[in-house]
Amino acid sequence: MVRFRWVSFAVMLAALMMWVAPWGALGQDQPVIRLGGTLAETGKLARTAALYVDGRGLAVDVINASGGVDVAGVPYQIELVQFDDQSDADLAVRLYQQLIEDENVDFLLGPYSSGLVIPTSAVAEQFGVPMVEGGGASTNIFNRGFKNVFGTLPAGQNYLQNAIKLFKEEAGVDTMALIYADDAFSTNVAEGARVWAEQFGVQIVTDEKYVDGQTEFSSLIAKLKEADPDVVMGANHLAEMLAFVPQARSLGLQADLVFTVGTATQDFLALGGTAEGVFGVTPWLPTQSTSGATFGSAVDYAQLFKDRFGVTPEYHNASGSAEILVYKNAIESAGSLDREAVRGAIANGSFDSFYGPISFADNGQIGLGQTVIQIQEGVAVGVIGGVDPIFGVSR
Question: What is the per-residue burial (b if ≥16 Cβ within 10 Å, else e) of 55-87?
C-alpha cells in the first residue's frame, strides 16, 4: 500500500466571535430572499445529500444572524425552500417547476448528483432563473450553452487527474484499473481518467463499468485481482464505496484504492481500520489556507461546523455553504433581486472565501482543482509529493 506524507498548512485558528441563532429567531420583520431547491432526503443519494442540508443550513443561519443580505441598503433574511426529490430525476424536474411556478422562489439551488442537476438545470434555463449548484460536477451540465447554471464543484473529467499524476510521479505506478458506475458523473470522470492515464503514461489494464447504486462487487473484485493493477481508481458515489471497500479488503484485493466521492465522510471513517490507507480526492480541506468574509478561514468554518454538528466538515458540506455565499455576494453586488442582474453578478463576480477563490468560467463551472487525500490513522489528510519512507510501497 502506498502511503504519502501529509500536507501541513500554516493556518492559525482564530476564534469566531459569532452567535448563531436558529433560523427564524432573528429578523422576523425583515423581507426575505427565497432560495428554492431539492435534496434527496430518501433514496440512494440521501446520505451524501444530507451533507448539503447541513452546509446550506449553517450558511443561512450565519448570514441571517449577522444581519442578512444587504440589498441596496435594505437587509433581507434568507429563507430556504427545499423539497425531497427522493433521488429521482423525474420527480426533481416536477418539483423545480413547482418551486418556480407555485412557490415563487427568487433563485434556485441545485439538487445532489449530476444525474439530477442535468435535467433540473434545463428547467432553470427554461424559466430564466439562476441556479447555483454544488452537487453536480459532470461537464455535461456545462457544455449546453446555458447561461443560468453555475457549479461550485470542479469539472468531473478532471477529478482523477492529480491522483493519476501523483501515483505515476511519486509512487512509480505503471498500471491502473478504472471502475465506474453508469451514472452521468461517474462516466464523465472515467472519460477524463482515460485521457489523463494516457497523458501520464499509466496503462489501464482493466476498464469496468457497473450498475449505478450497485452494492455487490465480488465478481468485479475477482476481475481486478486477476488484472493485478498497481492502483484501482473508482468513479463512484458514497453507497457504492461503502460496499466496495469492505468487500475488497475481505477478498484480498491488494492494490491501492482511490475514489472520487466519500473518502472523508463520517460514514466511511466509521469503517475504522477497513478505511485506513484508502485515497480520495477533494476540492476543499478544512485545514487549507483560504479565507474570506462571513466565515473567516477554512479552519474557522470547520470549527464552527464542528461546534454545530459535532463532526469535521468535508467538501460536500463546504460546497453547500459556498452555494449560499455565491448568492449573498451576487445579490449585494447587484444591489437588486432582479434575476438577470443577479445572474450577471454571479457570472462576472469573483470573491475570496473559506472555500477558496470563487469565480466561474464562461460555461458556469468553477475553476478549482482537486487535492489527493488519504485516510491516515482515522483522519482524511491531504497528500503531496514524496512517498513516506516509513511506509513506502507495500505491494
Answer: bbbbbbbbbbbeebbebeeeebbbbbbbbbbbb
pLDDT in tens, 348-373: 999 999 999 999 999 999 999 999 99
Q: Residue 230's closest CA among 201, 265, 189, 266?
A: 201
- Terminal Cα-to-Cα distance of the chain (whole angstroms): 6
Give all domains of the chain, ordered by start, each with its CATH number: 15-156+286-368 (3.40.50.2300), 157-284+372-387 (3.40.50.2300)
Cell of 124: 432553470
Question: Residues near 201 by Cβ (< 8 Å), separated by ≥ 6?
Answer: 168, 174
Q: What is the pLDDT of residues 199-251, one digit of tens each?
A: 999 999 999 999 999 999 999 999 999 999 999 999 999 999 999 999 999 99
DSSP assignment letter at 156: G
State if pTM tops 0.85.
yes
